[in-house]
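Form 7-S
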Amino acid sequence: MKLAVIGLGQCGSRIADHFARLNLKAQSERKATIAPIVVAANTDQADLTGLRFIKNDYSHRILMGLRQTLGHGVGKINELGAQLAREDGDKILDSLKSDRRFYETHAFLVIAGTAGGTGSGSLPVIVRMLKERYVNKPVYALAVLPFEHEQYSEARSAYNSATCLKSTYEAADAVFVADNQRYVKKDSSLANNMEKINRVVVEPFYDMMCAGEVTTRKMVGARTVDAGDLIASFEGWTAIGMGRAELPAFRFPWEMVKTQFRDKAIESFRGTQALDAAITDLSINCSPRDCAKCIYIMSGPAKEMNMDMVKAISDHVAEMAPTALIRGGDFPGEKHFIDLTLILSQLSNVPRIAEMYEQATKYAEDHKGQLLDTQVKIQQLSEIGRELPLL
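Output:
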């Protein structure tokens, strides 16, 4: 699957930068192009300057709202971010259309953090503009939720997230949700944490995007998962995860022939081990039983993937998501691991989002009362000093 990737705001731009890195990796390792167009748009000039892999020109790094913000962001006011996206969104659409590889892409992926101002405000606006302009091309969003300490200590973060998620869900074909809190390593520095989190958020998309785009015969699976399968599997709230099972680093030729029943059992177990790891590392906390659509992609050396492993994985997925429409396939892309990418879509229950909606509703009610109280106090203060002369 080839995606046109658009990163919005600081968080979205940095994650989009990693999609550009993945594209270079796919071209080098698998002779596949998976993200021919990657664009970053922001109201903060410094954030755009810090990107590494997105092309360093005005059509790939787009500065929005320069006249209003002077290149210094919108200060977490997502209403302003939405307004600037409406005014300058055409710059993004024109940049996409002017790229000669635009018509190779199968879908759009628009990425933003939901807690900030630029990303959370512009995400639903840009998704809506793309849907109106390109009716037949799916538009997916990747919404990155804030850390728990941001959600509870900065009430505006929860409000921004809730309004962004609600508006984006109404506009997009599917919304991939990634929860920053699930990736935190408490002993790491803040900079290392952010960099690693961005990498981990992007990594599960790699096999998914490569599976139907490889050009070498040895990398074509027995059951290929291509763009058509993926498009049919993505709808509504969506979670994605990847699990990995290690293979022995080196084996003698006679060890490759599995004659012992234990060897055969271990071989099949590796697939379910990778599946369990994928469920544990899903991008958002959810239950597979709550999904209506599910798709998995198994990647590993062709000699290691067999019918027993596929059957074990299929049975396990069917047991976990008994009411879901399940699709699956294999992709002989990895050399030293069994990787399994799992995508749960059309989720009917996402506890973190429900919690954020409740918190944002309470914040809106409290904030309205606080504003009225503040205005009354300011008025009272003015009355006290009314008789004083002005200098």
